[in-house]
Structure prediction request, 250 residues.
Amino acid sequence: MTRYVRMARVIREEDSTFLGVFPIHDRHIFLKDFVPNRIFHIPPDGVILGDDSRNRSYVFLDRKGKLHYGEVEEFLPQEGGYIRRGAKSVVLGVDDFPGTMKDWFVVDRHNRKTLFPRHDDGSDSLQSSFFYFLEDFVPDVGDIVNDKGTVILVDQKEGSLALRMKFGEDFWIHKAKGIEDVSLVEGEGKKMVLTLVLKGAKDALNLFFDHKDEAFAWVEKIKELKEGTFEGGKPRRVFVRLRPVSVSSV
Prediction:
């Protein structure tokens, strides 16, 4: 049984088929041409199964008594990262998440994709998009900079920044070359305000730092990225659609 989604798995390598059985829901799913050799548990209610030989995965979700699943091509769950709110830190390169962790992401360095959850605000706005990818983006540096949950993730290979302004929001991705200017001033309550002016954007982005040393360090990091030479990737955000599990053959 998988940890959060109560699913028994039957794999038949001789004909490359997979059977997932969900006894609590009295449901099963049959998948052809899928022999998963990777499993990544995603709390509080999901699991990713990956097939290295076919370079694809399936995501399963048991949310609010309903089962959902979706195929994700060219993605394998290789490692994870998560955001520790209390300790104000970003942890990278883990192979498992704490059971109570909801602020996580799953990284595929080979295909250069990072999977994030969309946080449920209690409305119907999520529909079937429970997750999203940042494609051509693999974070290797990250920081949470204030109590609101502002997070910066950096892909130093591509020279890209992923920014989230507060807890519960999705990340947006920006190329460092698209930053026209970066500056730092002291704001109210001794907070430091890092301002990013983006090409083509109507308004600048203001990031509020609780600690002056961290703010100065990030200004220097962003300036280095602006001056760097990088590969020609085109990072973008792509939503992952899931559908209900029923007694079916796929």
Remarks:
- DSSP finds one helix and 22 strands in the chain.
- The radius of gyration is 20 Å.
- The mean pLDDT is 89.
- The helical segments are 212-227.
